[in-house]
Design goal:
about 220 residues, alpha/beta, five-stranded parallel sheet
């Protein structure tokens, strides 16, 4: 079944290009193309799409509002940010809100459909320069966490996530792929997969979206 895509973009040229890219791909279905936060929220409330592609600078607010609303209405919704803002504040705010990908407009138009397919497959497309900064921030945070709480690695109860599992689940919630998580935590992708399987078993779930949703419901994230 084709993945439904909602495009939120107030620049008509980009809105047209992104819409054309989606409609030209048989694996995708254009659910809507709007130019404001309010219009996006209305469509999400009516029927949450599989993917939301949003700019951040919108006439009636920030695209971060769209991200939060989409993830709240449908936890497994993938949100791809496409914007001109490449500063740390916009990037971290978007990822914290639930974005699963972050691309600069000047590098995207010709590969929009590919980027959407990538997030649906569990990837996290991020423009190279932004990816380096994000990974460094996570490395710094992971190093600080390990330095202050190395002794808390093991869980005291069968259903409790270990500190490492919690760290991995937080990175999954940010949209990072297994290889990227391994790079941040200085472990192999195979080890990441092993931890993720344990997380799924403890939370009684079968996908990353379910794991993140269940962990949030239990107050683990």
């Amino acid at each position: 079944m084709a993945a439904s895509v909602l495009i939120v973009e107030d620049e008509s040229a980009f809105l047209h290009r992104f819409s054309q890219a989606v409609t030209a791909d048989e694996t995708l279905r254009l659910y809507g193309a709007v130019a404001s936060v309010g219009a996006a929220k209305a469509l999400i409330d009516a029927d949450p799409p599989d993917v939301v592609l949003t700019d951040l600078g919108l006439p009636d607010g920030s695209g971060v509002e769209v991200i939060r609303h989409a993830v709240a209405r449908r936890p497994d919704c993938d949100v791809l940010v496409v914007t001109m803002f490449g500063d740390d504040v916009h990037v971290t705010d978007s990822i914290a809100a639930g974005a699963t990908g972050y691309l600069m407009k000047d590098a995207l138009t010709e590969r929009i459909a590919e980027a959407i397919r990538e997030v649906r497959a569990g990837g996290a497309p991020i423009s190279p320069g932004i990816a380096r900064r994000v990974l460094q921030r996570f490395r710094d945070a992971a190093a600080a966490s390990c330095a202050t709480a190395h002794s808390a690695e093991r869980a005291t109860a069968e259903g409790t996530l270990t500190r490492r599992e919690t760290d991995i689940l937080r990175l999954v919630a940010k949209g990072l792929g297994f290889a990227e998580i391994g790079e941040v935590l200085a472990i192999s992708p195979h080890t990441v997969v092993t931890h993720v399987k344990r997380i799924y078993r403890k939370l009684a779930v079968h996908s990353r979206g379910e794991a993140v949703y269940e962990a949030r419901m239990q107050g683990l994230l």
